[in-house]
Structures are given as C-alpha cells and as structure tokens.
Amino acid sequence: MTLRLYDTERRTMREFAPLVPGRASVYLCGATVQGQPHIGHLRSGVAFDVLRRWLQAHDYDVLFIRNVTDIDDKILTKAAEAGRPWWEWAATHERAFDEAYRLLGVQPPSAEPRATGHITQMVQLMQRLIDRGHAYAAEGNVYFDVLSFPAYGRLSGHSIEDVHQGERVLEGEGKRDPRDFTLWKAAKPGEPSWPSPWGAGRPGWHLECSAMAEYYLGPEFDIHCGGMDLVFPHHENEIAQSNAAGDGFARYWLHNGWVTLGGEKMSKSLGNTLSVPNVLKMVRAVELRFYLGSANYGSVLEYSEKALYDAAASYQRMEAFVHRVVERVGEVPVGKWTDEFAAAMDENLTVPRALAEVHRAVHEGNKALDAGATDTALELAGQVRAMLGILGVCPLDPQWHGGQDDSAAREALDVLVEAELERRQQARADKDWASADAVRDRLQAAGIEVTDTPRGAEWSLGNARGKAN
Predict the structure, then answer these.
(1) Please, which domain of life does this record's source organism belong to (predicted)?
(2) Which helix (H) or strand (E) holds 370?
(3) Is 171 exposed, middle or buried (0-12, 13-18, 19+ CB in 10 A)?
C-alpha cells in the first residue's frame, strides 16, 4: 500500500508514512451539538470513515478520535431560546448525531471525548502556553498571543496582518491585540463555568480540540481531519497553540468539501439545511451514504434531488447485480478488490475512479449471468462486495440488509411475492393482459419492482431481491 493524501498545510500530495509502522492515529473534529444533524455535517463522517476503512483493510491499527463540542456560545444561545438546560440541549443533540452516524454506517470512533470532560487537560495546556510566553491572562480571560507565533497562517495562507478572528470582544476584556484569540472565557452570570487559576470560566473552542487530541493521541499524531470551513480560524489556531506549547501536533491535514445548496454552504445560519431524517424519507440510508461518499472527498458537493436520486439508482444497479448472483448461487463470499480500484483509492481516495471500476465489474457480471457463466459472475460479485465494502455500502453487510434477524420475514415475503408472480405468469400465458398488469401494479404499489428477464420475472424491494421460480 502506497497511499498518497493531499495535505492542506503543505498544499501538495504526500505519501502517508505513519509515526508508528502499522498504526494510524487520526483526529476528526466532530459536531458542535447545537441542533439536529444535516447532511452537510455527515459528509465528513462518511468521507473519513472511508479513509479509516481503507487503512484497516491494509491491516493498520487505526486509533480514531472524533470529539464532541458540548459547551459553546451557540449551544448556550439555542438552549436559552428553547428554555432548556444547556447540558440537556447538548446531550439531546449529541444522541441525534450518534443515531445519524449509526444509520449511515459510520463506524464508532475509538473514543468520542466531550469537551466538558477534559477541562483539566485544557487548564494544563493554557498554563504551558503562559509559561512559554504565548498566552496571557486578563480580567479572568486567557488569550493566545498571535504575534508570539511567527508561523501563524501557514495552514490557511492568511497573512498575519490580515487576520480577523471573528470574535466579539467587549471593551475592558483585556485583549492586547484584536488578532489574539480566546483560550478561556471568564464566567458570566447564568452561564456554566469551571474553576481555573485565572478564575471561573469555560474553554474556547480552539483550545478544546488541541487538548483532547494531545490527551488521546499524544503530542504528535498522524492525521487531522475536518471540513474545509474549519481551516481558518479553527485549525489554524489549533496548530498555533499546540506548536507553541511544544507539541508537534498533526503531520497531515485533510479537509472535506462542503455540501452546498444553490451554491451556498449548507448551514443552520443560512437556513438551507436538509436534515438527515428528512432526506431518509426520500432515499434509504445506504443510498444517502453512497451519495455523500461518491464524490471526491475534497470537492464541493452541490445538492439536488436529481443528483440524490441518480446516486440512489446507481447504487441500486450494483445492489441488484449482487442479489442476482445470490439468487443464482446461494452465497457470495467477499472477494478481493481489483488493482485499478486500489490505485484509485491510493491516490487521495479518488472514489469516482474507484466507482468506475465497480461499475465495470457490475456490467461484466450481468453479462456473465445472462450468458450462464455463473463462476465468472460469482468472482465479479465477490470483487464488487469487497470494493463497496471499503466504501461502507456492501449490499450484503448486516448494516444494510438487516442481518439474519429478518430471515423469517424475508422467507414469508418470498412466498407471497412468488405466489403473486405465478398468478401473473399464468395470466400472461392465458393472454389475460389486464390481470397480469393488475398483479404488477399491485406489487408496485407495495414498493416491489418487477423486471422481466430471459430467465423469468425478478423482483426487488429495498435491499431484498428475489426471482420467480
């Protein structure tokens, strides 16, 4: 495996060489749990789950950390507007994110630390920065001195003269320079706070991730991931405070593109979000995951219903082929991906190129089935399973077909549908076209699609697939 990744900091492709051979340490900026998850949030989860699966497939031991920001100005504001405790508001939406990740087949992280559980580590990091001359306390607040860190701006390309942190600082809060960013916010009446040497308060967003990344992955680790909107100021500030404290921090920086709607980034502030539950009324979870993961992870994904449905139809063709082979031979073991697929994935996880190889295998596999070449079709179906498995969408994985728990229901469905198809076949033999069409319409109304093939009628329902005897 020679994996090359685009490193945002170096602005070039770099061969992945982990700190420890055979082990990959990854930190992904997770959710600020202020509201319900939308599909823009889930794109980073899906994109870097694919990275994780590709590393695991090559026997890497992957230590994958995804944090939860459970204390933040936005959380406090939203909770206050709703008249609910901030901690209950955060916990409710954290559960919603967990469920969305689960529905889309995103593997649980090795650890999912909450910011509020790591105040001690944050206080220790601030003390190191103050001791090294990179931070200062003022009126109960603690700020990072941006001018003390000459390398500031190397990730984002911002000139230090043009830096604007986007923080609202009131007169009298003690900032020496408007470019300095907040590490610790002094307690305000009615807001949650924790004790510190500089007075009660709560952590700033940037500090949280640096402290948690160091605690779980050490002072230097392999990969830091997140959305492209986090490059500045969040990730820029993480680098500054961690490096200034003496940590090497992340060696590779990977950023996924936005999901946009009408050319605008999907965000709650713009009111143009599509919640995961609402999109799952339109397509299945596996189809939504396929859609979010089918573009290059670093590219912008412009949402449209047509694109979503096109992706779902594309996945259904792959799924249908695998189920055709299952019906023919009874079992399809996971095979090995092709060299072309591996080459695409090794080149910065180029999923569109990888999917072209899946489509090729599906096309050849269907031709083999039609020609009666079962062994060839079985081999190709095994390849398809392996390749789609890396993308987290193998049709036969229990996540998508319900595992063995639904076998009794599947058997009953098989019997009922096949009985209907026998009635249709008899009606066609009797040239009773109206009755034959009525059976087809009845099945279609129940969500069952019937396809006539040279071998007889085949049917499909969601993840199920069957064939009339």
Answers:
(1) Bacteria
(2) helix 351-370
(3) exposed
Whether 236 has a pLDDT exceeding 50, the answer reads yes
Whether the bond between 109 and the residue before it is cis, its omega within 30 degrees of 0, is no
Q: Tell me, what DSSP letter sits at residue 246?
A: T
DSSP H helical ranges for 196-271: 205-217, 236-244
Pick from 37-41, 137-141, 447-451: least confident: 447-451
Q: What is the pLDDT of residues 116-129, one digit of tens each?
A: 999 999 999 999 99
Q: What six digits make up the tokens of 328?
A: 């023919």
What gap in Å lies between CA 449 and CA 168, rounded to an integer?
A: 57
Write the single-letter amino acid at 120: T
Average pLDDT of the segment spanning 76-104 = 97
209 is in an annotated binding site: yes
Taking phi over 0 as left and psi of -120 to 50 as alpha, with beta for the rest, 11 belongs to left
DSSP state of 270: G
Q: SS3 for 19? A: coil
Residue 265 in marked binding region: no
| Measured distance between the N- and C-terminal CA atoms of the chain, rounded to whole angstroms | 45
Q: What is the CATH number of domain 4-256?
A: 3.40.50.620
Q: Which helix (H) or strand (E) holds 86?
A: helix 86-103
Strand partners, 254: 225
Predicted confidence (pLDDT) per residue in 413-466, tens digit: 777 888 888 889 888 989 999 988 888 888 888 778 788 876 678 777 544 344
Res. 91 pLDDT band, cuts 50 70 90: very high
Q: What pLDDT was estimated at residue 412?
A: 67
> Domains of the chain: which residue ranges?
4-256, 264-402, 413-461
Distance CA 388, CA 395 (A): 8
Full-model pTM: 0.85
More confident: 338 or 263: 338
- Please give the angle made by the CA atoms of 213, 217 and 221, to the nearest 5 degrees: 95
Does 38 show up as a binding residue in the annotation? no
Q: Which two tokens stand for residue 297?
A: 């992870």
Q: Per the annotation, does 134 bind a ligand?
A: no
Sign of CA dihedral 185, 187, 188, 192: positive
**What's the sign of the alpha-carbon dihedral 147, 152, 157, 158?**
negative
- Non-local (6+) Cβ contacts of 284 within 8 A are 312, 462, 463
Torsion angles phi and psi, residue 453, rounded to 5? -125, 170
Residue 238 assigned as binding residue: yes
